[in-house]
From TrEMBL:
Belongs to the universal stress protein A family. Residues 6-159 form the UspA domain. SUPFAM superfamilies: Adenine nucleotide alpha hydrolases-like. Gene3D superfamilies: HUPs. The keyword DNA-binding does not apply. This is UspA domain-containing protein. It comes from Oceanisphaera marina. InterPro entries: Rossmann-like_a/b/a_fold, Universal_stress_UspA, UspA. Keywords: ATP-binding, Nucleotide-binding.
Length: 174
């Protein structure tokens, strides 16, 4: 017998496809009764990026403020996307918002952070969208590909929608 899905880790890069993937996370929560934890990973700066930051911003507190602002910007974007999603969803689906039990923005390496948080949170399923850049990356994306390869729990990678279906609600009854 397959294990029950009680907790879903929805990972977002805040792209349009990530919003589309969120519809699937909500749909799966509705069907299974699972709770959802939302995770946005802000990629750590590389050594070169940190060196450049130190070269141009000499004041330590200003550098720390810049790094803090990166996370705050991602948090603001995530909140705006969530607010918009719940504004346009069908009124009868509004109660699903209670399925969101956590929402966090963390700095780290995306693949490792997603896998670590899925274990720490005791998740049963990871949901994320395929990335939207590059020729090969259009199909999957390096983070999605690596998570899919390394995850020890089921992982749903939601492909980019066709243009005419992107705005159609996923939660409607058939």
């Amino acid at each position: 017998m397959l294990p029950e899905i009680n907790k879903i880790l929805y990972c977002t890069d805040l792209s349009k496809n990530a919003s589309y993937a969120f519809k699937y996370a909500i749909y799966l929560a509705k069907q299974t009764g699972a709770d959802i934890h939302i995770l946005k990973v802000v990629e750590e700066l590389s050594s070169d990026e940190r060196l450049t930051l130190q070269s141009y911003i000499l004041n330590q507190s200003s550098r720390e403020e810049f790094l803090h602002q990166r996370l705050n910007h991602a948090k603001d974007q995530l909140q705006q996307r969530q607010d918009h999603f719940w504004e346009v969803i069908a009124p009868e689906e509004q109660a699903l918002r209670t399925k969101i039990i956590g929402c966090e923005v963390v700095e780290g390496y995306p693949t490792e952070t997603i896998l670590r948080r899925s274990r720490e949170l005791g998740c049963d399923l990871i949901v994320m969208g395929a990335h939207e850049k590059g020729w090969f990356q259009t199909l999957l994306g390096s983070v999605a590909k690596n998570v899919l390869r390394e995850a020890r729990i089921p992982t749903l990678i939601v492909p980019r929608p066709e243009k005419d279906t992107a705005s159609k609600p996923v939660l409607q009854k058939h």
